[in-house]
Protein 1
Amino acid sequence: MQGVTVVDHPLVQHKLTIMRDKETSTAGFRRLLREISLLLCYEVTRDLELTTRIIETPLTTMEAPTLEGKKLVFASVLRAGNGLLDGMLDLVPAARVAHIGLYRDHETLQAVEYFFKAPSDLENRLVIVVDPMLATANSAVAAVDKLKARGAGNIRFLCLLAAPEGIQHFREAHPDVPIFTASIDERLNEQGYIVPGLGDAGDRMYGTK
Ligand code: PRP
Ligand code: URA
């Protein structure tokens, strides 16, 4: 599928299966999401540009690779995005962070915004939006709309599960934003949940069901 990268690494797929299992505890779910986020972060940053700088090793001088450009921004769609964010910050501790508070209205499935806070200088930074679930994509589209309105021009979207319907909606709204996901599931059900899915990601992370 154009613009979509499925991260099919065996460790990702193994951990995802445990997360989908309804018997997995809240603590287990949270720990696995953090572990998977390290592997997904590795994939979504795979083609970052490098430059070099001169350093002194204990033995000699060398021109050594280092990331080019301004610090990355990780934009977490609350609440469940924070489960991916924590692990990603372990790998890229200097990243800047945006928080986008959105919840789905259960009747209309439209995204309702309740919070937005982002670094002021998004223009020249790569922004990686993180949210485990891309269902109807109403939340993802709203998050990217908002980031673009604040100047972001180089955006990627990282999730754990995506529904085909959500991918189509998101790609139509934001064809310039590549999607990275661990799985493309079968479909959405009548309530807008991903099938087979893993249930409500926020509830499973925080034990709020
Ligand atoms: C979940 C999920 C996404 C959204 C995906 O959040 O984390 O943000 O649903 O659904 P969509 O693609 O149909 O918009 P939810 O609204 O349940 O909020 P929560 O994380 O605070 O529980
Ligand atoms: N949000 C979730 O947390 N799970 C779904 O399956 C769909 C939207």
Note: Residues 4-206 form a domain with the Rossmann fold fold (CATH 3.40.50.2020).
Protein 2
Amino acid sequence: MKLSKFLVPTLKENPADAEVISHKLMVRAGMIRKLTAGIYSYLPLGYRSLRKVEQICREEMDAAGAQEVYLPVAQPSELWKESGRWEIYGKELLRFKDRHDRECCLGPTHEEVITDLVRREVRSYRDLPLNLYQIQTKFRDEIRPRFGLMRGREFIMKDGYSFDTTEDMAEKTYIEMRDAYQKIFTRCGLEFRAVEADSGPIGGSFSHEFMVLAATGEDTIVSCDSCDYAANMEKAEIRTEEFSFPVSEGSPEAVSTPGASTVEEVAKFLGLKAENIIKTLILKTENGAIAVLLRGDHELNEVKVKNFLKVSDIVMANADTIEEVTGGPMGFSGPVGLSNIPVLADRAIFGVESAVVGGNRHETHLINVDPRRHFKVDQSGDFRAATAGDLCPRCSGTLRLSRGIEVGHIFKLGDKYSKAMNASFLDPDGKEQFMIMGCYGIGVSRVLAAAIEQNHDDDGIIFPPPIAPFTVMITPVGAKSETINEVAGRIYEDLWSSGIDALLDDRDERPGVKFKDADLLGIPFRITIGQKALAQGNVELRNRRTKETILVKPEDVIPEVRKLTEKWAQRA
Ligand code: ATP
Ligand code: MG
């Protein structure tokens, strides 16, 4: 490819709407252009990289025994009604009507379509297992599309679905997919971590997210500093220490707390720390109101409560509900005497000696409260968000927090969809059974953004060679000379015929402009052909990452590039 004829509209300025570096650099390097919010066109350079990520996914999925299919983007509502998701999916699902007034949607994911396909084609256990995947455009009408390709409305996903005859087989497939994902992200050159993710009511350790470690990540990862435990914040468990302190003699005493209702205000007013307070959250689920007690300095983890209660919806109760269930105004709820709704307590509250709680009365709190004696708790458990310094649930280490970008998600679905949509097979005894499913997603376009988020410097992108749009950039510089052009052209031909993709900067530009653009585009290796070195029979080979330049003979370019690529792969 020759740069003079290639559509690479580089920009000097960052786009005004870009907040993260990958978005800025992809626009500046002429890889993508925005059409409208969350919807992007891939220009030749961006699309070359994207296809490399796709190809790595494809090769590893094929190697793991999965088969590639291509499913429709437009889907009829009937299938979504069968699975029950037409009602619950919400506004991310882009719905529309066709000319016959039939309801349709654009696929945000393909469980329904694939389950429909497989239930029609598979009859017997002999046809299973099946593992099918596709690489395709997804549409999700995200409420806040942002960060360029990171959170788009239209994006490219590799999604795969497995169908097994037994739970054991499904677990084996799950582990094979987890291994395949490790290989994919390693090959893409990413620094990542597989973390336990919330698997909703299915429970167990059958959902993992693959997180690219980056400060700009939208997810919080909780990991242990001494063992390999790592989980998404939503899922992260906490080991609670055993508490023991003498049972208090006194009884609760009401104190007036004018103008103080939040934990911070009450702590300040009473001259205490937030951890001396037990806060009472009144929440509403589809099954009614509940109270959750937390230590003042702790935060609620909604997902834990949802899974514990097996409910799908949790919101903060409004003032009317609070008044109704506690008899007091919002901001002063407390557990003492609270008997008409279920009370859940996070275990850490039992470590609060002589606690302060809300008094269920205007501007009133209770002091000297013993959490073991002075109020009723229906159930206690782990309901709070992990914080740095909490105890690891698996070992004696402590937990720390970091940020990550979710690039992949694998999930054991069980018979959720096969049951709802009647995807069954006949087992060896002729008995009808539901297939056991798993689903496996990779945000292919997000991988590209995440890779740049992790690999860049002040001058631009530093592509990992396996996903770089080109492996080598050839930059002839200096006065127009026949020899320089001839050597550049020969190296270009040689690289391509050895299977190394090269971009030739044949533009009539000053060396400074060419070098700047080369750095911005992030092509891993640059060959500079200039008068001075060439007079000695050499060209320069520069490593974008290390900025090291070596002199090589034109005929040694190919083995030298191979050596550098090999070195990169070994992270040497
Ligand atoms: P998120 O929590 O980031 O919204 P998700 O849990 O909705 O992701 P999945 O449904 O598991 O994501 O989709 C599989 C993969 O698709 C994700 O791991 C992610 O890499 C990618 N993905 C999801 N939503 C988007 C999006 N809006 N833009 C780009 N990639 C996305
Ligand atoms: Mg999402």
Note: The mean pLDDT is 95.
